[in-house]
Every structure is written in C-alpha cells, then in structure tokens.
Amino acid sequence: MNYQTLVVERRGHVGWLVFDRPDRRNAMNGLMREELRRAWSELAGDPGVRVIVNTGNGPSFQTGADVRELATDGVGMERYRASVESFDLGFTSWHLGIDKPVIAAVNGVCAGGGLHFVADADIVLAASDASFTDPHVSVGQVSAIETIGLMRKMPAEAVLRMALVGRYERMTAARAHELGMVGEVVDPPDRLREAAQDLAEKIARNSPAALRATKRALWGALEHGLTDACKAGAAELVGLWGHPDQIEGPAAFAEKREPRWKTG
C-alpha cells in the first residue's frame, strides 16, 4: 500500500511502522489516522511479519492530534465524536486487536495522543534524549484514554501528575524508565532503531502462533480478575495444542537446530 504520512517496511520478519510527518512533529492529522488503521492491519495480515516496531522520523516520535488543524478547519474535536462515543479508536494496535508483538521505539518527544502508542505497546524502548508530556489540559482537552492505559504500566500518581501539569513539565527517558513506562533506555540515541531491530529479531525467532496466543493471554489478564484471567490463559494454552509448532519446538531442541516454525 502507498502512504502519505507513514513509512511501512519489512526487515526480515520485522515490520516497521514509522510516523512520517517530521515537519509537523509527526502530529496526527485526519489522513494519518486513516492510514494508521490500514498500516496496522497490513502488517498484522502479513504472514511474513512476526513482530512490529513503531517509531517516528525526525526529532519527534509522535505528538498526538494536529492541534493547528483542529484550530483552523472549523470542525475541531467534533470530527472525532462518533469514533470516541463508539470507542472505535482504530489507529492504535490495542484498539485494532493486533495480537503480534509490538515494540514502541520512542525517538524524541512523545506528547498527548502519542502516549497511546506507548500505552498500547508490549515493549517500549526510548532513546536517552526522548521525553514525555501530556498537554491535553493545556489546550482545553481531557486526558483520559492514553493515561488510563498508562496506569497499567506505572504508578497512578506519576500518570496523574503528567496529566494534570500538562505541557509545563516533560518526563525524561530516565525517569520514565524508573517509573516503568519504558523498559529500556538506549544510549547513544542513534542506536535506537538498531536496538529495536535486534530485540524484534530475538522475539521473531520464536513460534509465531505461540507469540500471538501468549500476547492474547497476558493482555487479556488485564481485563479480568485472577481466576478468570487464569481460565482464559488456560484456554489459550490448550488452544495451541496440536499445532505443528508444538511438535517442531521439542524436535528442534532435541536435534540442536533452529526450529522451522509454521508461517502465520
């Protein structure tokens, strides 16, 4: 597919989804929102892609909705009313139900709606010079869905501070790592994509079917109490029994060779 606001490419079994509006700090306009839905679905549907890395071109990772567009087109936030009221937020991996592993590689400023992509990633890497801020209340908007998602990763007070202080503070990558928003800080910053590719390749060596089932089980646990989560996890476990990868895995281990996983 052709994209105007994104770059979508493959490197081996790793799919890359790259925000590509560097002149606007990778802010989301209406077109990017539409293209994100197509791009996530394209990579999710490609049997050759086992892991997806999400990053940005230029000095910013993602800065949320394009506020200039909202302020000048006469429509403003009303354009999003129907999608929010129906909870159809199909520009992020979680809301689209993507069950392939997703790595967010935060390369610079991550602001506002950009926090969706951090909250929804399975693993988050950040360049040492990356920073995080939530300016929603500073432009008269409610901070809700992104920050609620972040409460699954980090202490509630830290999320509340970021949401309530707005654009008047930025959280460093080091602090985000301390709080659990970020899993790894990459230094020097220009190694970020290399580090993300290396990690993605490690993950991609595993059974694609087992990876997807594992992700569904673990994310599903956040939606349930302990007993219900374990029951749902057990269903994912049993659901993979009889899959060719369950035969190939032990055979490859016994024969001391790399496994040949079933595609898809």
TrEMBL record:
The record's InterPro entries line, in alphabetical order, gives: ClpP/crotonase-like_dom_sf (IPR029045), Enoyl-CoA_hydra/iso (IPR001753), Enoyl-CoA_hydra_C (IPR014748), Enoyl-CoA_Hydratase/Isomerase (IPR051683)
Q: Organism's domain of life?
A: Bacteria
Give the Pfam families listed for this entry: ECH_1
Spell out the molecular function terms from Gene Ontology.
Answer: catalytic activity
Record PANTHER family: ENOYL-COA HYDRATASE (PTHR42964), POLYKETIDE BIOSYNTHESIS ENOYL-COA HYDRATASE PKSH-RELATED (PTHR42964:SF1)
Q: Which family does it belong to?
A: Belongs to the enoyl-CoA hydratase/isomerase family.
Protein name in the entry: Enoyl-CoA hydratase/carnithine racemase
This chain's source organism reads Actinomadura viridis
Q: What is the lineage of its organism?
A: Bacteria, Bacillati, Actinomycetota, Actinomycetes, Streptosporangiales
